[in-house]
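Example record for the data management plan.
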Amino acid sequence: MRGRDGLNSQRKERDSRRLVRQCSLPMQLYTDWKRLHVGNPPTVLSPEHLEPISNNKRKPAGGLWTSTYHPHTGSSFIQFLKTRPVARGARFHCWLLRPLATARVATIDCYADLMRLGSRFGWHRATYSDDPPREVVHRLDFVALAPDGRAVHLTQRGCIGTSARSRRYHLGNWMVESTVWFRWVFAVVDDLGEREFH
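Corresponding structural encoding:
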């Protein structure tokens, strides 16, 4: 006799396969995509500042992170930072980056896109020891994905569809529209200096 947990697990796997059939986006090429990077001001933002990627139970670490640029609000990431007390009223050192026309970007716009990438590149098992009983979840294996050369872009809609802790496969604390780049594929890098956004 199958237990309730076994039936729920089978139902989740079946729903995941159905979602993959419903929503799978191809790898995209971006020719004029303005991306905003925020960080501590080096003299020049260069390939040396692109750190090796590593898996983490909360969100991937390393790489170079950007978010879609908006002239008045900065980016979704800046708006997220402004909700934190330590960043209220802060000015942000920003760089505007334009990827090469040949830059390859895998887009996660829904849960099925996450499952599609996981099926191809595999999963990283993460355990939360502070959540009794010990919870084992599966994150996208970014270390395995990085040598492929493409970046991973999480859309605003994808943030909602992939962060649910109730799902076995999700992106954890990656909850803001943004892109993580594994290689230096930028045609233009403009240092905007310190900016204040509304």
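Summary line stored alongside the record: Residues 5-31 have pLDDT under 50 and may be disordered.
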